[in-house]
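Notes to self, ABC transporter permease:
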Amino acid sequence: MKRRLFMSRRKYLDTKQPKVKSIMGDFILIGIICLFAFILIVTQITINQPLSSLPSQSSVDDVKKMHDFLSIGNLAYFSMRTMFRMIVGMMWSILFSVICGVLAIKFKTARRIILPMVNFLESVPLLGFMTFTTAFLLGLYPGNVMGAEALAIFAVFTGQAWNIMLSLYQIMEVVPKDLKEVTSQFRYSAWEKFWRLEFVYSIPGLLWNLVISQSAAW
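result:
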């Protein structure tokens, strides 16, 4: 009798533990999303200011002499601005990589254009992009700090988008044939094959490459 009670209790704990872990994982994911959303909203509000609000060189030198320049509040604000640029640049890089990667995989004509173009753009240094995009991006938000922020975000984008796109294309190209045959047997549509197989298969490599690309964009 005691043994049966022990076994039933053990089975109950074994079935309960995965549910608790999944709930904790959901809460952690929701917390991370809320944190990113808070950073994006607060930073978007604070940077939507005229360029005249930016400090001049003399005022910067005066502020550096003050004791509160490296206070916790200032460091938190500077870190939030930096994270805003990195997050937005990463989002645009992922969107670009998914669109161009899928087009290169599905269509031979697009592949002949996209792959040479991305390989060429990957070899261009950052200053090469800044020479012809500075005036354009600053002109999108004339007299506003958003223009300078857009320029910084574009610099982050160019530092990681090409590498992410090429890695995503290479991973999606080597999806095992037996998995593709399974999707064909289940009569998946082109969108279902991409969303349930190809994209899921490429997530581990995509996340690993995002970590490396973020350090390069920094």
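- The mean pLDDT is 78.
- The chain is about 85% helix and 0% strand.
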